[in-house]
Amino acid sequence: MKKVLICFLIAIAGLAFTGCTKDAPPQSSPAKTIVIGVMPDVESIPFIIADKNGYFKNQGVQVKIEHFNSAKDRDSALQSGRLDGVITDVLAVVFANEGGINLRIVSKNDGNIELMAGKNSGIDSIEGIKGKTIGLSTNTIMEYTVDKMLESAQIKPAEIKKVAIPPLPTRLEMLQGAKIDAAILPDPLAGLAVNNGAKVLSSTDLLGNKAGAIAFTSQSLQESPELIKAVFRAYNDAVAYLQNEPTASDIDFIIKSQSFPAEVKDTLKLPRYTQAELPSEKIFVDVVQWMKAKDLIKGNYEYKALVDDKFLR
Asked: pTM (2 decimals)?
């Protein structure tokens, strides 16, 4: 009788196990990870801090930060579908769409670009730059910004000599070596140049003309709208942190994660970061007009077509 009871209980347990296995719901697929491409610049720092401080996790979104040392490598990753979003600028977004990549601007970004004269150039003001050489990268936000700075001083682009020097470290080196009279540089290299004697002639902070952007692919925006919204909530959390915390608290982490030169530790000045907001329509239109005038693009690009206003509400 005892044996019969044991066998009966074993059979019942086996049936119960089989039933549970059969009726168990399939495992849910892992949550999508939003991949964001960043460059070694100060504009990307809120994303780096959001990752470090766990703000993405707090907002319920998985984010992977991909670091790139060149815009070319970043854009190749974007084109191959490896990235959901990038820290970039309006010109690059327009170029991407011209090339068939459906990229949409969700927010501006913060950062300062400075036009500066070399220590021994003899240039004391932007008016003194006439006839002088300026190191920059052509057909980029750098050249656009130089032209806007010249325009504000009523100087024609033909009145200066543009020297194409795409790599930023090389541009800094040539400025400090007096191989060029002036150069346009972003932080943190701009701060390093000033510390070594360069004189600031103009800046996007002074000009009020910043064309930086945070952009995502149309596919990512369509497939993961709530995750993108969470990304920007975390971004804003990081901005709030950076507004109140001394730079010194995170300087070593920032330098290491962003591959900044070690010597910028004493000169790094972060922007006054602001909460995510849409870029200026006036600046967007001006950028497109500048690109059209230089015959860099064929298409007609409207603000409402390339700027998505649904994700910061």
From this structure: 0.87
